[in-house]
Amino acid sequence: MKVERREGLALVAILVLAAVTRIIGLDAGLWYDEVFTLTHYVRAPVGQVLTDFSSLNNHMFYSLQAKATVSLLGESAWALRLPAMLFGLASLIVLWAIGRSVAGRVPTLFALLLLSISYHHVWFSQNARGYTGILVWTSLATLLLIEGLKRPSWRIWTGYGVCVAAGMYTHLSAGFFFASHALVFCIAWLARSAERLAPYPGLRDIRSIYGFGVGGLLTAILHLPLFAQVLAAVNKVSQSKTTSAMAEWVSPMRMLHEIVNSLSVFGALAPFALAGALLIVVVGAIALWRRAPILVAVYVISIPLALGLLVMLNFRIWPRYFFVDIGFIFLCLCTGAYALCGWAAGLLRMPKLKQFLFAGGVLASTAASLVLLARNYAHPKQDFDGALQLIATRREAGDVATSLGLAAEPVKSYFAPEWPVVRNEADLLSLEARAGHVWVITAFDDHVRPEQERALARIREHYLLVREMDGTLGGGAVRLYRSK
């Protein structure tokens, strides 16, 4: 499909807007996972990064990308996050390539506009993790999957395999999405003689099998030095359901709660907004199904399939695992809105009304998105910097500052390496015995180790909560306590 001048200018304008919304606040304070990435992988030698999978926190490909940007630009929050931001912008271009031929130019461009100011898309584009990279690789692989089935060639299917391997090397959670590729392909292959699948001759072509094989082989080669560590890390996360307070995170209801909570800014209107958006998304998915059944099947199946695999593996169900679907959801939203506006205009026998109705819907959606987006700039993801600054201004001679639980990792390794760490109640009592006041920073208080529970209980009973530092990370509030 030829790119018209107006379409090209609109795309450039949207990308500029997206860049601006992602550059603002890119240098805000780091949160737990970002600090862990920086101190354990980005600062480590390349050889160690390539062979260390002791934690699923190592997004291998992203760690290498961030290491490169930090080496070139110096260590800072914005340099650490730069690859995520660039991949976030690239994901808009890939969605444009996917959507314009199946949804049309207008719905696709407006989907990009809404994504450019989407709170969640901006949040992940400013997060020094591999999720925007996974979004690009899975989206690009999906585009190549469709193209390879329509016009099979060795070049397209080789590109597909490379994208699969890149996504898997960024983080193994990409496998949940690529499983839907395999499942949809198998179903379509079994039904390849159906008239509806006639536009996909690749279902009967050996090059499609080659593409899946390339993806699997490259993924295996990249992870070969890590095989034992991968199994150990996966097993550790799986067992945490019964051995830690993280058990609540294996419930799909927890993910639904986080999604609803992210819309709390709309107050009592939030349930109605969510229900209305879901209805429009369903209408859009149905409209797209008629034009691109395999594309829609991949995304629709990916969500329940990923949920099922996560539950089966006893993995924590983080909403971030479904970030790969955000582009398709926005594409369905705008396609559904465009279709409903056309239906309403036809019902009223006023064809020109379609454009006015759609423009009004876009304005309303843009206003709602901007309300949500404002939250992204109101607070950092986790406000460790704020806690340290408050201690610095109120600390008196003889006071001791420390950290407990999961807060100890970023505080000790990055924010305040000179501070002692409280590992249990005995450590806390020892500090109290020699200090005027003890200042304690905590985070993720529901997930302390068993040996730290008594220390946290003592803090809650005998310490003053000086301030709870809000952040945009769900459940990640930083709390600052001072002994009475």
Please tell me the overall pLDDT.
90
**Strand-and-helix sequence, N→C?**
HHHHHHHHHHHHHHHHHHEHEHEHEE
Strand order of the largest sheet: 2-1-3-5-4
Q: List the quaternary state of the chains.
A: single chain
Number of strands: 5
How would you describe this structure to a colleague?
The structure is a single chain. By secondary structure, this protein is mainly alpha-helical. It has 2 domains: 374 residues, no CATH class; 100 residues, 3-Layer(aba) Sandwich (D-Maltodextrin-Binding Protein, domain 2), CATH 3.40.190. 66% of the residues lie in helices and 5% in strands. It has 21 helices and 5 strands. It has a 5-stranded mixed beta sheet, sandwiched between helices. It is globular. The relative contact order is 0.10.
